[in-house]
């Protein structure tokens, strides 16, 4: 999710006219920030993170992020406080590709007490990338076992096999077929967008390296610039959902700001089957550039949300959409990205974000009402009863 700005970004300069270079990166609110208040604010996660990945385990949230050797954190609440537990890798990755010390965009899943962390090795603007896998039975800071590459693109073993010849081995996500339990790896960005490959039963390799049985999940045809990346797949009530980030992710402080709306936002499509095809709310195929926006910049405060994941809910807690975003009053370096999250509700099977901390009752999912608002409703009821 770091591959960005393949195009020269001069749009902001064009918007604001000729200015000294030092000022050209400082837009005014109305020029690039989306000020809508129809999209709810995030619940604040109280952690600086890019491409967060959260696993709920043993009554705690464990958050993995791209960084030196893949750091991970622990908290009793999604809003923190977070404390670092350790790192997934205890040194460089065993894979000789990309930046071996500084993996990106991990995705961790659990099965029967074993944790599987898929991590990305790449460099900015390059398709010379790999997705590696490390496993552990403990989340206490002790070392994980690094099993090496699952897939590679650009160079290395297997990279000459289609679709590794045209795609980019970054941003792994994971899904199991709900009927069979079969596992799939989703990955990709920009170069032919997002793909899915069946995994072996031990989840450590792809099933058929010579003929991977790949399916393309999303694609923007007719364009050379195809800014879709960071896929996630979730399952809810009979539908599989492909989520992804669309637009420009980062480096706004260095490269400047795109036209309003071209920054990261979070999109989704759904299918009855894990392998697709996926369509958006308007019925447009994700393979035809489709994707319904679920979360985007808002309030002139939240900018370029993306790098998302969905944590499945249970009988008392709805699903949670978590992501990173830039707080326009904090700053625009990649390191300043913030953890945010919203609870989800489903309208006719389409996920939408809720405002505030949600409570799921047996009858309905409601979002938090401010105390004074409940008081007004109650006093309104009283007035009705008195009159
Ligand atoms: C997290 O903390 C907030 C308040 O700080 C609280 O409203 C919320 O219920 C907590 N959530 C969980 C899952 O503990
Ligand atoms: C890997 O990335 C880190 C952090 O961005 C950087 O400090 C380091 O120099 C990079 N290493 C290589 C070999 O490029
Ligand atoms: C789960 O793990 C335990 C011990 O780690 C093992 O004995 C058991 O066979 C595993 N179950 C499955 C279904 O793999
Ligand atoms: C290349 O990958 C294949 C299939 O995964 C594997 O059987 C083989 O051992 C690998 N070769 C090397 C040199 O790693
Ligand atoms: C199917 O989905 C349900 C509900 O999310 C879950 O409890 C169950 O474990 C899933 N089954 C498999 C095989 O993934
Ligand atoms: C549902 O998940 C929340 C965390 O998201 C947890 O605190 C709660 O105990 C779980 N409830 C049930 C009934 O499993
Ligand atoms: C943005 O940052 C300001 C200043 O630190 C803080 O008061 C505000 O709560 C933050 N809002 C969000 C949505 O992060």
TrEMBL record:
Q: Name one GO molecular function term.
A: arabinan endo-1,5-alpha-L-arabinosidase activity
What pathway annotation does it carry?
A: Glycan metabolism; L-arabinan degradation
Q: Does the keyword Hydrolase apply?
A: yes
Give the EC number. 3.2.1.99
Instruction: Report the record's Gene Ontology biological process terms.
Output: arabinan catabolic process
What the entry lists under InterPro entries is as follows: GH43_arabinanases, Glyco_hydro_43, Glyco_hydro_43_endo_a_Ara-ase, Glyco_hydro_beta-prop_sf
Indicate the secretion signal residues: 1-18
Name the record gives this protein: Arabinan endo-1,5-alpha-L-arabinosidase
Q: What family does the entry list?
A: Belongs to the glycosyl hydrolase 43 family.
């Amino acid at each position: 999710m770091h591959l960005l700005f393949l195009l020269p970004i001069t749009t902001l300069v064009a918007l604001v006219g000729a200015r000294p270079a030092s000022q050209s990166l400082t837009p005014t609110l109305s020029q690039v920030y989306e000020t809508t208040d129809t999209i709810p604010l995030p619940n604040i996660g109280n952690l600086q993170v890019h491409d967060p990945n959260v696993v709920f385990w043993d009554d705690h949230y464990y958050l993995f992020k791209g960084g030196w050797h893949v750091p991970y954190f622990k908290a009793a609440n999604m809003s923190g406080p977070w404390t670092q537990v350790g790192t997934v890798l205890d040194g460089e990755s065993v894979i000789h590709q990309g930046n071996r010390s500084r993996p990106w965009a991990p995705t961790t899943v659990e099965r029967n007490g074993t944790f599987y962390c898929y991590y990305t090795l790449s460099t900015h603007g390059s398709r010379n990338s790999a997705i590696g896998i490390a496993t552990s039975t403990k989340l206490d800071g002790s070392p994980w076992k690094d099993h090496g590459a699952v897939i590679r693109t650009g160079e290395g073993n297997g990279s000459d096999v289609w679709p590794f010849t045209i795609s980019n081995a970054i941003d792994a996500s994971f899904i199991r077929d709900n009927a069979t339990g079969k596992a799939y790896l989703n990955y990709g960005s920009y170069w032919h967008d997002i793909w899915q490959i069946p995994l072996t039963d031990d989840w450590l390799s792809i099933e058929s390296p010579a003929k991977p049985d790949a399916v393309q999940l999303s694609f923007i045809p007719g364009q050379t610039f195809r800014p879709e990346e960071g896929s996630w797949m979730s399952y809810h009530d009979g539908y599989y959902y492909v989520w992804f980030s669309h637009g420009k992710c980062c480096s706004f402080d260095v490269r400047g700001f795109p036209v309003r709306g071209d920054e990261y936002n979070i999109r989704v499509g759904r299918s009855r089957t894990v392998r697709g095809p996926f369509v958006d709310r308007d019925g447009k195929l994700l393979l035809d550039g489709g994707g319904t926006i679920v979360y985007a910049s808002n309030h002139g405060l939240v900018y370029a949300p993306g790098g998302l994941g969905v944590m499945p809910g249970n009988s008392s807690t709805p699903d949670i959409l978590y992501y990173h975003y830039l707080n326009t009053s904090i700053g625009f370096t990649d390191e300043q990205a913030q953890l945010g999250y919203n609870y989800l509700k489903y309208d006719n099977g389409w996920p939408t974000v809720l405002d505030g901390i949600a409570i799921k009752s047996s009858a309905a999912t409601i979002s938090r009402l401010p105390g004074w608002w409940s008081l007004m409703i109650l006093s309104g009821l009283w007035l009705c009863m008195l009159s």
